Amino acid sequence: MIRVALKGLAGRKLRSALTALAIVLGVAMISGTFILTDTINKGFTTIFTESYKNTSAVITAHSAISNSNSGAALTGGFPASVLDKVQRLPDVAAAAGSITDTAKLVDRNGHTFTTHGAPALAFSVDPNDQRFNPLTLVAGHFPTTSSEVAIDKAAADKAHFKVGDTIRVIARGPEKSFSLAGIVKFGSVSSIGSATIAVFDLNTAQQLFNKQGKFDVVRVAAKGNTPSSKLAAQIRPLLPSTAQVRTVSAQVKQETKNVGFVGIIQKILLGFGGVALFVGAFVIFNTISITVAQRMRELATLRTIGASRRQVMASVLAEALIIGLLASVVGLFLGFGLAVGLDKLMSSIGIDLPKSATVFATRTIVVSLVVGTLITLLSAIRPAIRATRVPPIAAVREGAELPPGRLAFLGPPFKALVAAAGIGLLLYGFFVHGIGVTQRLLAMGVGAFLLFIGVALISAWLVRPFASVLGWPATKIGGSAGRLARANSIRNPGRTASTAAALMIGIALVTSVAVLASGIRNTIHSTLSRTFIGDYAVTSPDGFTPFTPASEKALARVPGVTAVSGERVGDGKAFGKTVQVSGVNADVAKVIHIDWTQGSNATPAQLGADGAILEKTYAKHRHVGIGGRFVLQTPTGKKVDLVLKGTYVAPKGPPAFGAVIMPQRTFDKVYPQPTNIFQFVNIRGGATDANTAKLHSVLSAFPDVKLQTESQFRKNQAKFINQLLSLLYVLLALSVIISLFGIVNTLVLTVFERTRELGMLRAVGMTRRQVRRMIRHESVITALIGAALGIGLGFFIAFLVTQALKKDGIGFAVPTVSVLVFVIAAIVAGLLAAVLPARRAARLNVLEALQYE
Question: How far apart are CA 43 and CA 358, in angstroms?
Answer without folding.
Answer: 9
